[in-house]
Amino acid sequence: MRAGEPNTENNSAAQRRSLQEEPVLAAVRGHYSLGIEDVFREARMLAEGHKLKLNIAAALYSLIAIVMALIVGGLGAISNESIGIAIIGEVVYAWITLPIAMGVFAISLDRVAGGEVTNDRLFQFFPQATRLLLTTILMTLIIFVGYILLIIPGVYLSVAYLFALPLLVQRRLGILDALEVSRKAITHRWFTVCGVLLILSAMNVIGAIPLGIGLIWTIPWTMLSIGVMYQKIFAGVAPSHWA
Fold it and tell me: What are the pLDDT digits (tens) for 65-91?
């Protein structure tokens, strides 16, 4: 490149970074709108015609989680409840299930962004497994300390850290940055987010009562409601932005 010519490659990279940073900064400053009624209305609309695929994704995750839990439990029994084996088992369980859980979230977010539901997303995030694991461990420790400190800080952080893992992967933030961005952004509408989560929990409990038949509807609504909140808070997410 000759002197005086614009560096289009660097300019393009800077523009891409700016596009990624702006929604995050806006969310941290509370520049977004979020209402409980709007979240559920959009989730119900988005679920139409896609419940089967969303339920399949949730069922695959649940099946893998159950199998892993049985394996970890069996190893613990064989080792006479060895603490070391138990810790290793829990770490392996989280290392395998966290990327799949992130895949479930990505599937729901693809649908929220107007895309189709493709279950090959489920196993896309294993390269991020270690970062997801480390973030989860740190997040759990901080929340645990919060519960020790008069419970209320723990409740606050349990909700405020809701989007730390998606931010870690989708926005490619560092571990501490992902935790802080999630906390600061959600704090502006903490009671709204908490209200959505409480209603979703109640819906799933009620849906499970009649032989679990209601879960056919409530599980997709749950997946999409959380995706809708993420999209509204962080100014929209295109499926192609995922790693």
Answer: 999 988 888 877 777 767 777 788 889
